[in-house]
Design brief:
alpha+beta, about 15% strand, 5-stranded antiparallel beta sheet, about 40% helix, 5 strands
Length: about 250
Amino acid sequence: MSEKDKDKDQKPHGKGGDDAKGGEKPAGGDKRDAAGAEKAAARAAAKAKKEGGGDKGEKPAKAAKPSGPKVPARVKERYVKEVVPNLMKERNYPNVMAVPRLRKIVVNMGVGEATQNIKLLDAAMEELGRITGQRPAMRRSRKSIAAFRLRQGMPIAATVTLRGDRMYEFVDRLFNIALPRVRDFRGVPTNSFDGRGNYTLGLKDQLIFQEVDYAKVDKMRGMNVTFVTSARTDEESKLLLQHLGMPFRHQEGR
């Protein structure tokens, strides 16, 4: 037999070899299918994580909102139902919009020692935030004073501006809880108006508020509480604050 015939006889075996190689193709297809399955599983896991259904990606369930209506502040409800009608009768206002009202309350706490130790201002801001229920803003000095070792731009105070329901809730706590806790309290002075219907009350310490923890207080800090009203005169402003519950001092007890 010639060599050509031998080669022809060996060709089918070569085809078998090709078939054997071709048999490897399904294995490659299995790899591609496995890769596709992994990608599909990854996409499903990402989708489940996005929707919050994954084990690791589960988000904490949101607290259910109260089904009932929001309860308004007591002082605000009293102002609408009692104070406004009484003031309209006493002062003969033409309409409801002419009746004076509280616009905002500004609470200031000065910390002069913060020029030497900034941590004292951090403690004051934390206490003021607990008292008012709102994060206070830091105030910086406007000019330099050499006698007090004060430079322009140094943080020296904290302030909070209250409006809306939070303002009326603070008024409720101040008039009914905090001020009665002042030692030898005989009422607030009546000569603290600025002539434009605004009233400023000075407090000597922050311990009269129940929100302050006595054990964590390192120093007594006073504060100023300014009531900004829409009244045009001090007389109207005083009458408004009296109806809201401000315990003014009697003239004979001054």
